[in-house]
Write a structure and sequence with these properties.
With about 290 residues, this protein is α/β, with parallel strands linked by helices. It has a single domain (about 5-285), classed as Spore Coat Polysaccharide Biosynthesis Protein SpsA, Chain A. Helix content is about 30%, strand content about 25%. The strands form three sheets. The chain has an eight-stranded mixed β-sheet with strand order 3-2-1-4-10-6-11-9, sandwiched between helices. The protein has a two-stranded antiparallel ribbon with strand order 5-12. The protein starts with a strand and ends in an 8-residue tail after the last helix.
């Protein structure tokens, strides 16, 4: 049975936005069940074709790129637009999709629910595509997410690798970390684990993973390819290039992450009460904060 999905897409000066939206709808089995809201942080002269603007269920909120306060500020704005849709999907503005991606992704999520997973989240880094290169250079394996890099002892960056022997899997793979460029969940996820706009950029996926875990959500990686992501920034402008004071927000963000992981009182409201941060570290087999 089809189910409505609220699709959230923050876009910052990204020339791939139009092609992403076209493919999102063209490849969906039930495009009429999508309600998509884009926060388009644009500059004078940035344009979208009329054929994109008139896609069914699409709303584009336009704002000047110079007034943007960062990626998670944008995601927070989009979360406020949540309607009565039973599912929500967080995406970036530079993607391509497999045929019937919506039915496949919902099938995986519902399968987890049917198997007894009370609060499932389907999320991962999607394999790579290169804008303008066609399908030949697209990666063909689904990916798992793992820790990569720290800053001042705080885990801030993740990486991905192909899932070993994924063709033998019949269900999504239990995981520790989410990706913010592909995250499908029941609507309650947005209500319980709302985006924290005070997390500037680096570390946002780690904080959301930890917070989701403490609220009782279980993360799974898709065991089949559902789409592709452009990792090169050649077609878009990073927020920090136009905002030279970004490091101020980043420093505050890093302090907030440390507080979240070490039991700070100022971040107590972000942590759930179903499981602890220490239990997440035990599950993930990785410390969130180590001596710098």
């Amino acid at each position: 049975m089809p189910a409505r999905i609220y699709v959230q897409i923050p876009a910052y000066r990204d020339t791939e936005l139009g092609a992403t939206l076209r493919d999102l709808y063209a490849k969906a089995r039930h495009p009429s069940d999508l309600r998509t809201v884009v926060l388009w942080q644009k500059d004078e002269g940035d344009e979208l074709p009329e054929a994109v603007r008139t896609l069914p269920g699409l709303t584009i909120i336009e704002t000047d790129a110079s007034s943007s306060r960062g990626p998670n500020w944008a995601r927070k704005v989009l979360q406020r637009e949540l309607g009565d849709e039973p599912y929500t999907l967080l995406l970036d503005s530079h993607h391509r999709f497999v045929s019937e991606w919506d039915e496949q992704a919902l099938g995986m999520l519902r399968g987890l629910e049917a198997s007894g997973v009370r609060k499932p989240v389907l999320s991962s880094y999607l394999p790579r595509y290169i804008p303008g290169s066609g399908k030949a250079l697209r990666q063909t394996d689904p990916f798992a997410v793992s820790p990569m890099e720290r800053e001042e002892g705080v885990l801030t960056r993740l990486t991905s690798y192909p899932i070993h022997r994924w063709t033998e899997l019949s269900a999504p793979l239990r995981a520790s970390y989410v990706s913010l460029h592909f995250l499908l969940a029941p609507r309650a996820f947005t209500e319980e684990v709302a985006i924290d706009p005070e997390i500037y950029f680096f570390g946002d996926e780690v904080t959301l993973s930890v917070r989701a875990y403490t609220h009782g959500w279980d993360i799974y990686h898709p065991h089949r390819v559902l789409g592709w992501h452009a990792y090169s920034r050649a077609t878009r402008e990073p927020h920090w290039e136009r905002h030279p004071d970004w490091h101020v927000a980043h420093r505050a963000s890093l302090a907030r992450q440390r507080s979240l992981y070490t039991g700070g009182a100022d971040t107590a409201s972000l942590r759930g009460d179903e499981r602890s941060v220490a239990q997440f570290e035990e599950w993930a087999l990785h410390r969130l904060v180590v001596p710098a």
